[in-house]
Design brief:
Number of strands: 0
Structural class: mainly alpha
Number of helices: 2
Shape: elongated
Low-confidence stretches: none
Helix content: 55-70%
Radius of gyration: 27 Å
Mean pLDDT: 80
Distance between the termini: 80 Å
Oligomer: single chain
Strand content: under 5%
Largest sheet: none
């Protein structure tokens, strides 16, 4: 097995040491306090909630 895979495994090992998988050249990653793009799933749930509240308000008035 070492004669078949040894060289390629060593190559990948050296590549990983030089360039880790989480390496992002040119920019840093940081958590944003302000998210510019709204999550569409949250927006849909908020709309459903608002519709439910208005229907419930109409039923209370009746």
């Amino acid at each position: 097995m070492l004669s078949r895979w040894g060289a390629s495994e060593i190559t990948f090992k050296h590549i990983k040491e030089r360039h880790p998988y989480h390496y992002h050249p040119g920019f840093g990653l940081a958590e944003s306090e302000r998210q510019d793009i709204a999550n569409p799933a949250v927006k849909a749930i908020e709309q459903q909630t608002q519709i439910g509240k208005t229907q419930l308000g109409r039923l209370y008035k009746q």
